[in-house]
Amino acid sequence: EDEVLIIGSVLDLRDKPVSKVMTPIQDVFTLSMDAILDKETVDKILFHGYSRIPISAADNKAEFIGMLLVKQLITYDVDDALPVRHFNLSALPTISSDTSCLDILNFFQEGKSMQKHPTTDMSLTIPTLVLYIGHLALISSNPGGVGGALGVLTLEDVIEELIGEEIIDE
Ligand code: ADP
Fold first, then answer.
1. pLDDT score for 43
2. CA-closest residue to ligand 1 atom 10
3. What is the value of ipTM here, to two decimals?
């Protein structure tokens, strides 16, 4: 039965750490807050095609201070050649790498930090999830501290996990 498969996939999320489904940091397109947004860099951003870019501290590539929303560049003139720090950066929440995929769903839904204990709340509905497509979290071995970034995770990574398992199971 489809219902059984779906419930099974959701239950599997409880046992799967986010570190298993994140995009590893070496594959993440990032910029330093000192990077100059000239034509070359903006072309690179467009080439990669991501909508959110983690921004590292000027003096420490391993420390992330926020993220740049690429849509902010729609009205930007590359001839101004401004540094990234000129732009309003959005917060980049840091999540511990042992957080479960189910807990991260709740995090994206609530937009605030999770309880310590694995949640059993499965009341997420598709409309509420859709609201949070667009959120990016930094996965870290050292949340709250500096450094330790292991990767990034979006809702899409978790949803793909749900759908992927369903397809394989069938
Ligand atoms: P986007 O809107 O940028 O396409 P999605 O939320 O659709 O982002 O995520 C698509 C995939 O891209 C996910 O696997 C996510 O982990 C990854 N991703 C998101 N931002 C970046 C980035 N800056 N660099 C590398 N991978 C990223």
1. 97
2. 156
3. 0.97
